[in-house]
Predict the 3D structure of the following.
Amino acid sequence: MTYVLAVAVLAGIAWGHDHSGFDPIEATALALVMPAVVPALPVIYFVGAIAWRLSGAPDNGPMWPVAVTFAVLLGACACINLLLLRAWSTRRRARRQGHSQTTSVA
């Protein structure tokens, strides 16, 4: 839960203010949600672009809708990463238990 919250906060900070270029906070938020962010990038930037345009951010409109959008999307990627980690660890544990049972029988 702390991981998801940290990602969401970093994403909100990164996309919550107008800046040009690639921000180090952006890089940190994106790096923390690897590997789930890779297939999600098109969706993230498409939905983010919609939030950007609808909020009027290009014309000095509010940035909070953009920040919330990216925080939710990257938070979802963090949740997916947790599910992937759980599935991987469950499979690994089952494989170890199966391997130890077959070697103890022999």
